[in-house]
Every structure is written in structure tokens, then in C-alpha cells.
């Protein structure tokens, strides 16, 4: 299939302040501007692996040669259509229309910590972040609760060697049957979001891994939040097995309300990206079944991370009550994609799950097209003033 591009007219949209704790007036952009929007079907493949393009759930820009943008992208294919995989995607002309055949993709197979390929329904890649200074890539899997496969966060070095990071016990499901599960991530609701904050030293960083919806033990009618793990990491070299975990803590991320007419639906955290100094951008998405096609409400938030998380992996493993395990993030609403719906491909927000900051500081957001069931992958570029 050819690559197709659709560019929307730029539009300035005023920032909408959200209810709840503020992340600080000085940190808020004054406006969010839609710069461009385009669709991408099946880019030509470089190399020998002509695997299908789609289901893109996480992206991370890592260079901008000329006017092109290079990104890592992960597909949420559960090893059904092709092996679990990560793409090196080159998108030229991010601002202006380009020839339809100019985008390219090169696929890389993902393996587990034993260098083995993932079996069907034993993996569900969702997030990706590159630690460029250490030539490493972090990626997350929702796991498969139904099959007894826990959620996971992996680090992969440039040679393909992979290690699995520790995950606190509170995230591990105690049952495969949803009707009796009382703890851990729900099926298909695991680690959707990854953010990386690199410190002044290129050898240390903080990695955030957020689950999409509340853990089973956190489900409540009065308090709606999901959990985010905060890893303090360092590397003594450039090999995956030289990655050191200095601390693991958990945070509570308060999920925003769904639109008033969407009563009974659940918002989910689909992506995080660091903007430095303990602040993140968060992407939330709610979904409901409409007439013939799913409908999505997507919002962008600015988040402030508490400076001193109180909980370590050791304490979390001791089974402390859930309401004592985490400090709570603060956030404010920046942007509702409904405000530019008529300017988006298809005239509505899509299943936006991937988000990255481009070298010029603008924000690139992409949709998961359910491997073609919802048309081509949609990319939206925003500029935050």
C-alpha cells in the first residue's frame, strides 16, 4: 500500500485549565497550536524484514537529519502478524507535503532476557524510550494477564542484549480469571506509558512506567487513579547487563474525568513524556463504541512529579496498604483534541497512544490503528508556546 500524507491547516487553540491541583502557573504553555496532521499507511521497508506496519503504540524521536525526523516505534502486535518488533521510522517533510513514497521503515525483532523470540500472546509491546547517551532502548509490555504473563519493562542495548527490570509485586496479577482477580494489572491494561528523564550525568536517568488503568486493588467509585513506577537507573557501560537499578518507587496518577455524556466509560493513561525538572506530559484516552466505529476522547496534561517519592521496591513488596504505597502526582489540563477534531484526518480524534518531543521542541502524537482496522496510522504535530 502507498504512503499517504494529509496535512491540516495550523490552528491556535487556547489552553484550558483543568480542575484539581495545579502544576504551577509559570510552567503552563499559553497556547497549544496544531501544526500539521498526516496519515501513514505502509511505508517501504528497508532491509529484509517486510513485516506489516501498524498498531503503533509508542514512538520516540532520536534525530532530525535535515528536514526529516527519525523515530523509534513499537507495534503492539502480540506476535500474531509478525514477531514482536520495534521500527526505525524515517518521516521526511514533517512540516510540508512530501512525495508519498519517501517515508521508510526498518524493523528490529524484540527478544526476551534469554535472547528468545516471544511466543504468541506472551508479549504486548506498548512503550519505547531511547537512552541515546548509553546506546540503549527501554520498552514496555502490558503482558497478558489471561495467559499468566506479567507486565514487564525491558532495557535493550545496541547489540540486542536485553534485561528485564524489577516490577513491584502490587502490579502482578494474583489470578488469570478477571472475576476473581483481586490484585495487579487487568488484562490489556498494563504498561502503556514510558517516559525517560536523563540527568546532567549521561550515566544516570529516571524512567517512568505507567499502567493504563487502575490496578485491581485500586478500583473504586470515589478515587480513580493508576500507578506509575519510577526507576532510578545508572549504567557503568553500554551493555544491558551493566544497567544498575538504584531505586524503585511508585506514584499515583489521577485519571481525569470522561466527558459528561460518556458516563460509565473509563479514561486510561496511554503515554508519558518528560519535559525535564520532574515534569511530564501525559496523554489520556477514553473509548466508547459508537455507530459503526469506536469514538475517542483524548486529552493532554502537564504533570508535576513529587520530589521525594516515599516508597521503595522493598517496602512495596512487604504488602503495605495501597493508599500508603504512593505519593500522588499533580496535573493540569493543557489540551483537548476535540477542539481540533474537524482539522484531523477523518474529522475526529483517533486512538492516540504514542507521543514524543521532536528536536525543535514540538510534540508528535500518533495513533494505534489496530493493525489497519481503523484505517492508516494518524500523526499529529503540536507546538506548545
In words, what does this structure look like?
The chain is an all-beta fold and 385 residues long. It has a single domain (11-384), classed as Tachylectin-2, Chain A. It has one helix and 22 strands. Strand 15 and strand 16 (279-289) form a beta hairpin.
From the structure above, extract its key features.
1 helix, 5-stranded antiparallel sheet, 385 residues, single chain, 5-stranded mixed sheet, mainly beta, Tachylectin-2, Chain A, globular, disordered N terminus
What is the annotated CATH architecture?
Answer: 5 Propeller
Distance between the termini: 37 Å
The quaternary state of the protein chains shown equals: single chain
What would you call the shape? globular
Structural class assignment: mainly beta
Give a brief description.
It contains one helix and 22 strands. It has 385 residues and is an all-beta fold. The protein has one domain (11-384): Tachylectin-2, Chain A (5 Propeller), CATH 2.115.10.
What's the topology here?
Elements: E1 11-14, E2 31-40, E3 56-63, E4 69-75, E5 85-91, E6 104-109, E7 125-131, E8 136-141, E9 152-157, E10 162-164, E11 191-198, E12 204-211, E13 225-235, E14 243-254, E15 267-276, E16 279-289, E17 294-304, H1 313-317, E18 327-328, E19 330-336, E20 352-357, E21 363-367, E22 377-384
Parallel strand pairs: 14-18
Antiparallel strand pairs: 1-2, 2-22, 3-4, 4-5, 5-6, 7-8, 8-9, 9-10, 11-12, 12-13, 13-14, 15-16, 16-17, 17-19, 20-21, 21-22
Amino acid at each position: 500500500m502507498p504512503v499517504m500524507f494529509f496535512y491540516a491547516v495550523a490552528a491556535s487553540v487556547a489552553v484550558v485549565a483543568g480542575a484539581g491541583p495545579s502544576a504551577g502557573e509559570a510552567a503552563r504553555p499559553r497556547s497549544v497550536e496544531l501544526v500539521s496532521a498526516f496519515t501513514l499507511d505502509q511505508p517501504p521497508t528497508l532491509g529484509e524484514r517486510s513485516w506489516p506496519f501498524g498498531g503503533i503504540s509508542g514512538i520516540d524521536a532520536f534525530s532530525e537529519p535535515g528536514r526529516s525526523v527519525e523515530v523509534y516505534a513499537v507495534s503492539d502486535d502480540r506476535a500474531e502478524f509478525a514477531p514482536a518488533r520495534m521500527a526505525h521510522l524515517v518521516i521526511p517533510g514533517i512540516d510540508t507535503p512530501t512525495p508519498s513514497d519517501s517515508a521508510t521503515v526498518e524493523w528490529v525483532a524484540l527478544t526476551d532476557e534469554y535472547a528468545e523470540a516471544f511466543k504468541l500472546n506472551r508479549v504486548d509491546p506498548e512503550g519505547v524510550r531511547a537512552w541515546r547517551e548509553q546506546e540503549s532502548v527501554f520498552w514496555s509490555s502490558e503482558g497478558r494477564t489471561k495467559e499468566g504473563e506479567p507486565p514487564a519493562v525491558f532495557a535493550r542495548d545496541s547489540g540486542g542484549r536485553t534485561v528485564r527490570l524489577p516490577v513491584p509485586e502490587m502490579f502482578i496479577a494474583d489470578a488469570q480469571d478477571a472475576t476473581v482477580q483481586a490484585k495487579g494489572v487487568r488484562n490489556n491494561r498494563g504498561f502503556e506509558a514510558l517516559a525517560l528523564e536523563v540527568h546532567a550525568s549521561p550515566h544516570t536517568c529516571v524512567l517512568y512506567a505507567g499502567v493504563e488503568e487502575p490496578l485491581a486493588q485500586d478500583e473504586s467509585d470515589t478515587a480513580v487513579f493508576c500507578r506509575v513506577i519510577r526507576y532510578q537507573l545508572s549504567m557503568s557501560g553500554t551493555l544491558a547487563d551493566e544497567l544498575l537499578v538504584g531505586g524503585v518507587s511508585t506514584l499515583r496518577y489521577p485519571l481525569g474525568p470522561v466527558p459528561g455524556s460518556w458516563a460509565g466509560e473509563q479514561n486510561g493513561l496511554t503515554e508519558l513524556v518528560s519535559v525535564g525538572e520532574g515534569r511530564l506530559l501525559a496523554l489520556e484516552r477514553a473509548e466508547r463504541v459508537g455507530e459503526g466505529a469506536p469514538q475517542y476522547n483524548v486529552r493532554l496534561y502537564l504533570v508535576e512529579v513529587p520530589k521525594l517519592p516515599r516508597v521503595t521496591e522493598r517496602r512495596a513488596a512487604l504488602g503495605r496498604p495501597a493508599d500508603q504505597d504512593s505519593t500522588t502526582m499533580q496535573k493540569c489540563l493543557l489540551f483537548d483534541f476535540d477542539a481540533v477534531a474537524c482539522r484531523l484526518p477523518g474529522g475526529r480524534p483517533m486512538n492516540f497512544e504514542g507521543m514524543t518531543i521532536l528536536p525543535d521542541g514540538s510534540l508528535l502524537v500518533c495513533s494505534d490503528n489496530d493493525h489497519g482496522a481503523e484505517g492508516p496510522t494518524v500523526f499529529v504535530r503540536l507546538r506548545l508556546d
